[in-house]
Amino acid sequence: DAKTTQPTSMDCAEGRAANLPCNHSTISGNEYVYWYRQIHSQGPQYIIHGLKNNETNEMASLIITEDRKSSTLILPHATLRDTAVYYCIVRVGWSNYQLIWGAGTKLIIKP
Amino acid sequence: SAVISQKPSRDICQRGTSLTIQCQVDSQVTMMFWYRQQPGQSLTLIATANQGSEATYESGFVIDKFPISRPNLTFSTLTVSNMSPEDSSIYLCSVGGNGQSSYNEQFFGPGTRLTVL
């Protein structure tokens, strides 16, 4: 069963920051939060992951609440090519791990 | 990162037949995963295939229906057996781990789009 809940869809204006929320209220202390995206007809693409601290890379920032029950993925300057389904995922296990996928948010970037 | 290719990229098959999907990676990896993505849905893990051991299947998936081979650290196959229209999905291969430590992320192939008539 999915351990995350996300809004079904969101819109964002091109050039603005896209903020995608995710709830994971049952996450365990050693389980990571991952974000992937899937552009139409392609395989999923890794974006970012984190455990407790906020994380930033060249693609996005991940803000995790102190209680770890929710997080937000931030795309700082959305472009039309960021239109995709964004999945918030919980990683369970360590050496033999699994990614438990949520239903995803369809993000549409509008010009 | 790892570069993953899958063959075929798509196929249309008749019910009752079987299709074998190949997954090739450009580097040695410990863990390979097979997922199914039904139309408009999220990803569901079918099984984990580690080299040198039997594949581990998730609830709802059985070896007779989805036999998997993992002959070496760069290759795996998934067979969809005795197909029915309900098997129409995208099948995705992904990889993680390099035998020494776990990758922090899984890398995905482009997927195989299967349509069963």
Write down how many β-strands of chain A occur, each being a DSSP E stretch of 2 or more residues.
Answer: 10
Helical percent range of chain B? under 10%
Which percent band covers the strand fraction of chain A?
A: over 45%
Terminal residue distance of chain B = 37 Å
- Helix residue percentage of chain A: under 10%
What integer value in Å does the Rg of chain A equal?
A: 13 Å
Low-confidence stretches of chain B: 98-102
What kind of sheet is the major sheet of chain A?
Answer: 6 strands, mixed
- Give the mean pLDDT of chain A: 92
Largest interface: A-B, 19 and 22 residues
Low-confidence stretches of chain A: none
Number of helices of chain A: 0
State mean pLDDT of chain B (0 to 100 scale). 90
Question: Structural class given helices, strands, pairing of chain B?
Answer: mainly beta
**β content of chain B, as a range?**
over 45%
Q: What is the chain-wise order of helices and strands of chain A? A: EEEEEEEEEE
- Terminal-residue CA separation of chain A: 36 Å
Summary tags:
heterodimer, A: about 110 residues, mainly beta, six-stranded mixed beta sheet, four-stranded antiparallel beta sheet, 10 strands, globular, B: about 120 residues, about 0% helix
Please describe the topology of this protein.
The complex is a heterodimer of chains A (111) and B (117).
Chain A: E1 9-13, E2 18-23, E3 32-38, E4 45-50, E5 55-56, E6 61-64, E7 70-75, E8 84-92, E9 98-101, E10 105-110
Parallel strand pairs in A: 1-10
Antiparallel strand pairs in A: 2-7, 3-4, 3-8, 5-6, 6-7, 8-9, 8-10
Chain B: E1 4-7, E2 10-13, E3 19-25, E4 31-37, E5 43-50, E6 56-57, E7 68-72, E8 75-80, E9 89-96, E10 107-108, E11 112-116
Parallel strand pairs in B: 2-11
Antiparallel strand pairs in B: 1-3, 3-8, 4-5, 4-9, 5-6, 7-8, 9-10, 9-11
